[in-house]
Specification:
The chain is mainly β. Helices cover about 5% and strands about 35% of the residues. The longest helix has 8 residues.
Length: about 325
Amino acid sequence: MNYTIFKQVTICLLFSSIATQAGLKISVIGKEFTRNKQVTPPSLFFDDSNKGGSTSIRNADLPNMVWKDKGYYRRNRDLGQVFNIPAGQDITLDAIVLRTGNSRIAVLTGARNAEMYLQFYEVIGQPTINDNATPIGKEATHGFTKNHRGDDYIEGVTYKTICIVKGGHFPNIEPTTKNGGQAGHLLYTKWDLTGEDELTLKAGKRYAFMVGFVNPGPLRNLTFGNVNYAHLPQKPQLVKDSGGLHVWSFRREGDGSAPIKTAKMINKKTGKNYTKKELVDQSKFNEKRYDIQPTTDGYPDVDTYRSLEFYIELKK
């Protein structure tokens, strides 16, 4: 396979007082990865992936928007992950290691050579689970799953943008066409911050990163290995990292509207069913994309009980 690595230095877009010159380089590690304890201490990783599933980021252009069987267009999506900085010492983030998923859409053709971004947040507040008034035995309110936890979401936190780093391009990995057993499945990749200064994060605080495709295109889809405990029969609780602190995954979908609109819903302004244009518009990213607050409430699944497999690497 021809793994082509692209590097471009860019200026971090500022939403806070932290001024960081940064760029992004994305490279392939391989099918095997061993955590370096010197650069990834406890609390800064989650080392598990469900080998039977994965969850996607995507940015489809208009001709490739897909109509779904529930009466809505599949929304473009960015995915993110919360992590905790151990108490006692500030850290300088150098890179993030992420693993691709294991499905037939793990790495599609449109992901190769596509420009990517990382958006970093400070997570403020304390998370609580809202069960959306769907106790055991009731179907999720949005109707996309019978699992009563399928509409649970996290509230009590806000996500304050620190910066956005653009310019890295995803490697030229062979696309996947089936579930499991191909070169692009369960493949570790490194997302390396470059430049004069990496990102400095404060001890004892909670942060997060979001990842996505900068521009739309055909077959622009990439999945990440993760675990999702929404199906477990025990009392629902958030995932914990290796240090015993709560973490969770989150997402940004389309124009951020919730709940999602379907073809069977009635437009309150017109009194008619939603039009194709209205449904497509809610599924596309728009100019306010990076300002939309992430959520754990998604369709047809939620990220409330999910964690990506990730490793935060510190500057040596």
